[in-house]
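Model it.
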Amino acid sequence: MIPGLAPVLPNFTDLVAARGQGAFLYDTGGRRYLDFTSGIGVTNTGHCHPRVVEAIREQAGRLLHAQINVVFQEPMIALIGELRRVVPEGLDTFFFANGGAEAVEASVKLARRATGRPNVIVFQGGFHGRTLGAVSLTTSKRIVRAGYQPLMAGVVPAPFPYAYRYGWAPDATLAWCLRELRHLLETQTAPEDTAAMLVEPVLGEGGYVVPPAGFLPALREICDEHGILLITDEVQTGFGRTGRFFAVEHSDTRPDILIMAKAMASGLPLSAIAARADLMARWPAGSHGTTFGGNVLSCAAAVATIGVLRDEKLIEHAASMGERLMERLQSVQHDHPAIGDLRGLGLMVGIEFRDVAGASAGELVKRVQRTCLERGLLLLTCGYREHVIRWLPPLVATGDEIDEAVEIFTDALRRVRS
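Modeled.
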């Protein structure tokens, strides 16, 4: 622990990072680590991509802050143009903030003002941030909410189709969850009281759970039936992580509001929500705002980030490397019964461990994670019992780097189980 740093911030290493390049971090002693955390899904273009660094340097010599209530600035205008090319069709208007939780709260405020309805349906296992409003929407694990009650009213959780946890086939899990969702609209929050449904297209902190293909289209149908807004939280899934620019593209589902952050500016703080112009027009001027949101440096970095993702075909690369990673891990799973489930899209892959004789899944994961660290591989965990190892390498990771990481992981499994 660093003296003077609040202990509320957990960390699993004592490393002090000195620099980063591509898929690697280097500590102050010069040791190299394969960073398959990407700063929790932030450095999709890798550490210090030259184009992003140059964009930041150039902008820093011109202007550091231009407050949106006072003046407009060129990088934000350019970013709006770039985003319109990559977000789902029709989402043509943007509100910029600093981080994911801010954008989540902005989406809820917009939904409530636009519909005149108070309630929001969320889904079990979802993570939407740690500010008081955002944590009221979060159900990924107990520690995030414990001690902060009473939380924001009007939040109603529905089941997420987490087939492995329920022990059912995906189609049966999906059908049950949709029945429960419709039952919830009859018993807990009437449609005329429900402003929005807020959902992660793939659960992040909740376990890297990919829902059955029909889930998001079914939510779209139910929302349309009742005049409810569909909000997709793409904070972790966005900007190429799943092998598409946004994860909703896998199911060809268009949300009413899309939330983005994390990888948006390759490491600088920036987030946004996107919606139709007519929906944004129902948000009265002055009813929400920000001082630093859409910072000029961050916007310049985001324009460069989108250019890198497009020009270097990193989204296609993420899909290809994701297939490679899954194939390698499937062979590992075959030899290790402690691995219960392997799932993912693109370079967003989760390995769920199960209890075995003498050790809980969470204990096994912690030991594997620590052993990987000793061998120079950084991996994160997730899930309500921290029983899932998540793989989120930068989208620039090469096949050789993927293979090296899997070899370290495989060796760590052998060491832990021997």
